[in-house]
Amino acid sequence: MLFKKPRKAIGVDVGSHSVKAILMSRSGSRLRVEQVGYANVDRNQANVDPIAAQADAVRAALSFMPIQQSVVVGALPGQTVVIRYPRLNADLLPGEIGAAIETEAGQNIPYDLSEVFLDWSVLDTVREGDSQKMKVLLVAAKYEVIETRVQVADAAGIQYAVLGVDSLALADAAECCEFLGPDESVALVNLGASSTSIHFMKGRTSNFIRDVSWGAREMIQAISKGRRCDLQEAEKQLMRVSRGEPEFPETAPLPEPVTLEQPPAPASSLGGGSLLDPLEDEIGALGEPFAAPAQKSTIGVPAKEPERPVEELLHAPLSRLVLEVRRSFDFYEQQMYERPVERLILSGGVAHMPLLRQVLAEELGLERVEVADPANSALAIADGASFERFQERAAQFMVAVGLAARGAAQL
């Protein structure tokens, strides 16, 4: 049997909330988006069998894509891998670099080397004093984390040709979309459902990555608690606000009066120590979301106070996001002696929210806080295809774009 070389690449971004997929091909010197896939992960199924829930979403997202004729590229979550930037003597021979990398890994990776898969690449040559150094990107992933991703792929009936890291895929996406200038200091911030990746780029080179345990679900929990509604309704309200729509459509019924009193919001503890030490109020500090109360008679019940605006409910989670981003900026600029960040590019499901961009710009003192838009970039878009969600929520697909671009490089 003759096997043809794949002519297309598929990037599959598997998140805790949804799966995003991009089918990409080459059109001359340009990359072209052929198809887009999206599917939500069933929350109830995920509580029982997370692998099956993600596999079902992967199958749905890829249902119309030519999997067998494509290079399929997946990603490990950034918070599950260790990324370091060691510097080695530039005069090392090619055969000596591998041994030097293992020595660096043994000193900088908090796991036994027998437990991890190591990968590395030389980024640049820099001058330190009187000597030349090679700046190396070193990635270490535990075998058990890789195995979990492979189990999802097996259950979905696909096989990855390459497994990358979602935070690194952001850089690939920014490069293929031509979002990066040749001499810029840029922060790529990808806002996920349960975690956020902050990737600092110097010129067009990866310079530092930090993943923090802040996600959009903190905003959903805050709305659920403040509005006394379930998580699904809270998510709908968050999406309406992120799209700039009114909180309550005119045709929607008025909320039922309730008899519960709203509890005070818990105080936040910032902690001390290193700029990058974990905060004490990690995810879950907002408490469990309120379940919708049973309907009661309103006879004799005082009129319900007006509901607080969603933007007011989002103050606490957004403040924590700003704190995490600022701490990352401070560490990068002050302790790594790098020049200040000039531009911040947002991606992820809530990146389009005007309030979020406004808060980050004001609190970080940045003039340029932008939303990644791969749908209107250097990428070509195939004719006759339906890309409604991609065009409306393009920032949500940045990781998938980066993964597909990496696969397309092998075509």
How would you describe the overall organization of this protein?
This protein has 411 residues and is of the alpha/beta class. Helix content is 32%, strand content 25%. It contains twelve helices and 15 strands. It has helices at 43-48, 50-61, 94-108, 143-156, 166-176, 217-227, 231-242, 310-313, 315-335, 354-364, 388-392, 398-408; strands spanning 8-14, 18-27, 30-40, 70-76, 81-84, 87-89, 116-128, 131-142, 162-165, 185-191, 196-202, 205-212, 343-348, 369-371, 380-381. The strands form three sheets. It has a six-stranded mixed sheet, with helices on both faces. It starts with 7 loop residues before the first strand and ends with a helix. Mean pLDDT is 87; it is low at 250-273 and 279-293.
Distinctive features:
411 residues, five-stranded mixed sheet, globular
Overall number of strands = 15
Low-confidence stretches: 250-273, 279-293
User: What percent strand?
Assistant: 25-35%
Outline type: globular
Helix content: 25-40%
Query: Largest sheet at a glance?
Result: 6 strands, mixed
User: Helical element count?
Assistant: 12
Order of helices and strands: EEEHHEEEHEEHEHEEEHHHHEHEEHH
How are the strands of the largest sheet arranged? 9-4-1-2-3-15
Average pLDDT metric = 87
| Terminus-to-terminus distance | 21 Å
Radius of gyration: 23 Å
- Estimated structural class: alpha/beta
